[in-house]
Amino acid sequence: MTQLHRRYHITTFGCQMNKADSERMAGILDKMGLEHSDDPNCADVILYNTCTIRDNAEQKVYSYLGRQAKRKHEYPNLTLIVSGCVAQQEGEQLLRRVPELDLVMGPQHANRLEDLLTQVFDGNQVVATEPIHIIEDITKPRRDSAVTAWVNVIYGCNERCTYCVVPNVRGTEQSRTPEAIRAEMEMLGEQGYTEVTLLGQNIDAYGRDLPGVTAEGRHKNTLTDLLYFVHDVPGIERIRFATSHPRYFTERLICACKELPKVCEHFHIPFQSGDNDVLKAMGRGYTQQKYYRIIDKIRTYMPDASISADAIVGFPGETEEQFENTLQLVDEIGFDQLNTAAYSPRPGTPAALWENQLSEEVKRDRLQRLNHLVSIKAAERSERYLGRIEEVLVEDCNPKDPSQVMGRTQGNRLTFFAGDIEALKGKIVKVKITEARAFSLTGEALAMAAIGSSSKC
Ligand code: SAH
Ligand code: SF4
Ligand code: F3S
């Protein structure tokens, strides 16, 4: 069915998985003949791809949705879709809350958008949240960037961290085959992409659900094997992966990252808490000591590797002393970047039912103290780049200064330098770092004279 006169808009909340899903869904809508619109108020089909990791993420969705539900009373032809994690969590209840909705679809159904939307255009109100086997998508995603691309390698999560909604909303683990992943990367290489980020909520679980063992009796489809399998895809110069889980992180993986030149020396390994009792209550399956050992190993093999992580403060029952163990870990390890969050009780998770919840005030205070330390440590980490020559993959122009382009170092530091985006987009440029801030750098490109500096953003 073609939809030549309909325009669609997608707003994406949440993590990289959701961004990747949105790009695939946009690809499906393009293929159906709808036109893309950046402005929801000009669109006939609005899709909110939602996140429910914390309460504030979920509330944001309702406020956006409320506005468009109102608009639907003026424009009855407006089609309203909620996809993603709030859709999966709330299911039918969303229709009761927002009866103007036409389609509620969980993350596992992203690739089925055409089929579901056809049912909507036929006059049905549709809810698709039953667990399914995720079918390989054959549509070309509409990617936000022409330089860097997400590639899903494993969907879902089989962990049961006591605070987390992800297993409830993303379902059980489903790995894509190494062949499908490589084929997608080859296509990206042919289309001119330079960097790929392999995605999984717990990427170390990759391949557990695929068959195959080696002669030594080892599972043959691990993340490490995957990296060896895809590392030489033509055109792809940089490979990243996220998110690593300390419980399953292996030395073999570190060695592969060191050995394979295209795999970036950057690890994203959330630790969540620096206290063993809190880690136990979270159900994370490792200790603070094990986390230190992982970081030591990485730094033994790759002293300059960037390390980032996620942490939660104010988990139920967390004492001041236990929180200080998190501060101490952050102080000792010195992360290049740390995503921090105050604990938010989530429906359907064990910890939400516990009675030892902390007050918002305590959580806010701890978050502030942790963030303060994080920026001090990140600034210290940035210092090491000063005067160095770094390879920067140029992604775009600096939105705040169009005479500059921006990109990332191998270690994932955002870097700005004077240059022409037309000439440099997608290129890896050697840049001498002249200024270092906590989370970004400024530098000068080597041999810029040959490149010119007009801005064409
Ligand atoms: N799979 C990844 C992270 C997934 S969610 C992992 O295992 O680490 C992204 C981050 O959100 C988590 O790392 C955690 O720090 C945070 N998060 C998850 N649930 C949360 C909650 N209920 N309250 C606050 N932060 C939460
Ligand atoms: Fe959530 Fe834990 Fe799975 Fe990460 S590993 S997505 S925190 S349940
Ligand atoms: Fe949010 Fe779902 Fe990702 S809850 S963080 S969009 S997996």
From TrEMBL:
InterPro entries for this protein: Elp3/MiaA/NifB-like_rSAM (IPR006638), Methylthiotransferase (IPR005839), Methylthiotransferase_CS (IPR020612), Methylthiotransferase_N (IPR013848), Methylthiotransferase_N_sf (IPR038135), MiaB_methiolase (IPR006463), rSAM (IPR007197), rSAM_horseshoe (IPR023404)
GO terms for cellular component: cytoplasm
GO molecular function: 4 iron, 4 sulfur cluster binding; metal ion binding; tRNA-2-methylthio-N(6)-dimethylallyladenosine(37) synthase activity
Keyword terms, alphabetized: 4Fe-4S, Cytoplasm, Iron, Iron-sulfur, Metal-binding, S-adenosyl-L-methionine, Transferase, tRNA processing
Domain MTTase N-terminal: 6-122
Residues annotated to bind [4Fe-4S] cluster 1: C15, C51, C85
Name of the featured protein: tRNA-2-methylthio-N(6)-dimethylallyladenosine synthase
EC number: 2.8.4.3
Note describing how the cofactor binds: Binds 2 [4Fe-4S] clusters. One cluster is coordinated with 3 cysteines and an exchangeable S-adenosyl-L-methionine.
Catalytic activities: N(6)-dimethylallyladenosine(37) in tRNA + (sulfur carrier)-SH + AH2 + 2 S-adenosyl-L-methionine = 2-methylsulfanyl-N(6)-dimethylallyladenosine(37) in tRNA + (sulfur carrier)-H + 5'-deoxyadenosine + L-methionine + A + S-adenosyl-L-homocysteine + 2 H(+)
HAMAP family for the chain: tRNA_metthiotr_MiaB
Residues of the Radical SAM core domain: 143-380
Catalytic EC class: transferase
Quaternary structure note: Monomer.
Subcellular localization, as worded in the UniProt entry: Cytoplasm
Domain TRAM: 383-447
Superkingdom field: Bacteria
Similarity-based family: Belongs to the methylthiotransferase family. MiaB subfamily.
Principal subcellular localization: cytoplasm
Source species of the chain: Lusitaniella coriacea LEGE 07157
Entry cofactors: [4Fe-4S] cluster
Residue numbers binding [4Fe-4S] cluster 2: C157, C161, C164
Underlying gene: miaB
The keyword S-adenosyl-L-methionine appears for this protein: yes
Physiological role: Catalyzes the methylthiolation of N6-(dimethylallyl)adenosine (i(6)A), leading to the formation of 2-methylthio-N6-(dimethylallyl)adenosine (ms(2)i(6)A) at position 37 in tRNAs that read codons beginning with uridine.
